[in-house]
Amino acid sequence: MQINRFTDLGLRVLITLQYLPESELSTVDELAKQLNVSRNHLVKIVYFMAQSGWINSFKGRNGGIRLASTSYQLKLGDIVQALEQASSETSALVNCQQPPCSIKEFCYLPQAFSEAQQAFYHSLNRYTIRQLQAPATKQTVLKWLVQQK
User: Fold this and answer.
1) 104 contact partners, CB below 8 Å, separation of at least 6
2) Overall pTM surpassing 0.90 (yes/no)
3) Which ranges form a coiled coil (predicted)?
């Protein structure tokens, strides 16, 4: 199983935002610099996460984003599945259309992959976003975030 870039960056954003103190906001520009990625990639991801209610977005001169308080309980598998479906990069694990498969009428492979993918999401659902935060390194990450600004 492989996640696409949209999902990878989305998870990085959620994990990074966890380390912000509740009263602080981050910006897409700050996150792009901290994560060493393109701002354009993050804009689409942050917009999707704001629409999904995972992050709060504030407009204006002093605007920014932060993790929504309810997001700490989000299940990792549900997040990965939603990000994968929202991505323009999403493709099936097995594509019976390209090139056209002559055995697809009696082949169980797509069903097997679909079941494995659901098991993957189910397994990830044992974890919440909060559980991805390493408590022992919180101070180190906070210092890192300050240095990146």
Assistant:
1) 96, 110
2) no
3) none
